[in-house]
Records
---
Amino acid sequence: MKPTRLLCLFAGTDALALCLVWLFVPGTERQIATMEEMNYVFGVATRRHMDYQIKEVAPWCYSHYIRRQKGLADLPPLYRYAQYTEGGDSATNEATQNGPAT
């Protein structure tokens, strides 16, 4: 295999890995202090996380970083720690208390 093809192969697999990590791995934008918050973050369904990344984050990043639009509204949070810790939405609490869906 020629060096150029090998480089392209590695670059392609790196790009694919970047997309998969961005879609499937939940990120924590702030320091998680308790195990309950950690359980809440990783208790969100992967489908919901992927929908949020594709429908909310990707258009915002495109508008903010590529089109350089100023004054964009902040992204709505995927994780609502205050609602979870203060009672908040009972459906959300019930889903997160049962742990991640398998």
---
Amino acid sequence: MTHNLSQCRLLVSKAVAAGAKALFLPEASDYIAPSASETVSLAQPTSTSPFVLGLRSSAREHRLPINVGIHEPARDGKKVKNTLVWIDEDGEIKERYQKLHLFDVDIPGGPVLKESNSVEKGMAIFPPFETALGNVGMLICFDVCSYLSLSLVHYERSGLAFDSHLLCSFAFPNPRFFCAAKALI
């Protein structure tokens, strides 16, 4: 996580130097662990996570809002929440969104990937919220496949922060839609 935080802070500096009004970082920017059990063991609350606290400090120092994907412990302690947070220019977490559509695949004779084994499913899509950039809404990765049409009703006059560690392979018709892609390694 220390390495990823230093990479994110470098991106904050580059964004500020380039005149950016906000920085959109990918899903799981804090870490990608080699196993589900390690993913769960590394999760920390936003109030104590050095990664989150470091980005909050950078947002405040540079007066730059940051949208970032993180892991949070789930209530039961056996899973994590795949969360997207909006840190405002004062370094405060103003919005959070929890991934709804978990990536579960079981290909006969092939790979078995069950995100639901270690990730707690979110409960709702929220309407866009006001920022200095205008209204912004949030989805994470596979949510866009399942909920894009529903989301477009909410996001018709807003930007969408689509957070994914998967490479985006589609174009949105509205140029105000944002796509943060590719995990920090």
---
Amino acid sequence: PQPTDLVLESSYTKGLCIPSGRESLDRQDITMQVLVLGATGNLGSRCIPALLAHNHSVVVFVRSEAKLKQLVQSAALDKCTIVTGDATNADVIEKTIVENRCDALINAAGLAAPLPYQEPRMQAIVNAVTPATVRASEKLGFPIRCWYLGGMTVLDFPSLPGTKISS
């Protein structure tokens, strides 16, 4: 910020600046550092170019960087930070959020309806991502916006214990 800029310090704006001579922020002035989990899937791979088109910075969290490079154009990936890891590892997710100072997280990881021979991972992913995000938010000192995509994420799976999310 310039000395004449007004710095907003609410929990929603987290240090955004209104340049001097302007009364408010335009939509294009608001950008976020967004962590995308599950970027090799249908939803996640579509989030990357959409976020970049809106001038957000993107951190991509995937199990396979090679698969990501097959699905997403290199021109888009060149603008991203790529982190390889397992979406069920809360410590690695928390570290990624903190090191990249992410403002938001999009979880598109996990299959909503795995094939009969596959083990469901959705609940394990949610059980890792949610507390990792809460801890990262506490360390960073600002709220992190989270979007869980895929529909089934918010539902309980039959025969699996439910998830209680505490603040």
